[in-house]
């Protein structure tokens, strides 16, 4: 594939900026070694051009590389401007056996905003330019090391919110989806070649499959697309997760429930009603399902601007949530506020949780069912952990009937991929209709060709620069 980046050498900080043991400044491009040579001095005196590929060298990053090494010690020679920035390990990786299929240099330094920033600025001054978001991975795609579906899987690996989400992302990164898509495209290409031959050489009796045989071949591919799309909802859940809001009137134990499910003190809990004023969000790995739990402020009649804003945010979170956990204090009678909140969530998938079941009950299951008819009611104690294991099991069942495993299947986790598959499926249905109605080989060929192109968009064999820019803009700088 043609290189769209000319001869630029790019650089970026590839680790999160902050206090930690290691920070990495990465370079990629034809001049990576030359740029690094200007700022790095190896402790053994060797030049970077002398180092074999995939080797690591100990030394220093310096402001002025006109320094000498003697007995593994850095010594200055009448150069007052020379300055050591950091003690580092520098890795050299030569093309094409690299992430981008270009020469790559990685400077492993001490992490910290000052050190990383100074090294990055020095690299930029010596001839590299700052990478744009996702440019390293985009170069890997442009240079043919990975396809577009694999490039998107890189982002999914980084953003994985559960073990199953990571497993699905790694499967795509390894090319399982791409292999399937390419096999389908190959089958369509064979059909298309025969259709076009029959059109171009209609007077020479080119053998076109009988309509029934052609229908069977196209229907088989349509079935494969249907199977891929069948698990798309599961894949989307793995990738995006499910938003679950914990709501209820003040002091019913919403924050206590959040802490109990997370098994850590995430929310402040007191006996004073209305302690929670802001929205708290945490992700729970629920049998492989990334469940985004949102703890909201109690829905109350506000008496000041802070309470008004807290209630507004709570209502917004509830409206946007995929699922609701309505928490009720079972040790007190149901109030008008409980009914009001339940009515506001009448159309959403929900559970009614009778909390504080360790106290004498004043609300039974029958009364709780009137709050939200048709919804499951569970008795729990957030304080003692009673009923929480069952709550987790019922939540998982309600999301995808408890099936939290991909069973080695190719999962569609990306909305762009799902749309392309649906488009291809729709076009193949049109081609089947055209065959049945004897509309002619030209019409059938057009539908098959467009279906093949739709599938090509998934792996990047058919696409445009606008699509690429949109995909890679979602990456962080440095990846």
What does this structure look like?
- By secondary structure, the protein is of the alpha/beta class.
- The chain folds into three domains: 10-146, Gyrase A, domain 2; 154-231 and 411-460, Four Helix Bundle (Hemerythrin (Met), subunit A); 242-400, Rossmann fold (3-Layer(aba) Sandwich).
- Helices cover 43% and strands 17% of the residues.
- The strands form three sheets. Strands 3-4-7-8-2-1-9 form a seven-stranded mixed β-sheet. Strands 11-12-10-13-14-15 form a six-stranded mixed β-sheet, sandwiched between helices. Strands 5-6 form a two-stranded antiparallel sheet.
- Helix 6 packs antiparallel against helix 15.
- It is flat, with a radius of gyration of 30 Å.
- It starts with 9 loop residues before the first strand and ends in a 7-residue tail after the last helix.
- Residues 68-72, 76-80 and 268-277 have low confidence and may be disordered.
What's the layout of helices and strands?
Blueprint: E1 10-13, E2 23-28, H1 32-37, E3 40-42, E4 55-62, E5 68-70, E6 73-75, E7 84-93, E8 104-109, H2 113-125, E9 129-130, H3 135-142, H4 148-159, H5 163-173, H6 176-200, H7 211-230, H8 232-240, E10 242-247, H9 254-262, E11 280-286, E12 289-295, H10 305-320, E13 323-329, H11 336-344, E14 350-355, H12 365-371, E15 376-379, H13 388-400, H14 415-436, H15 441-459, H16 465-472
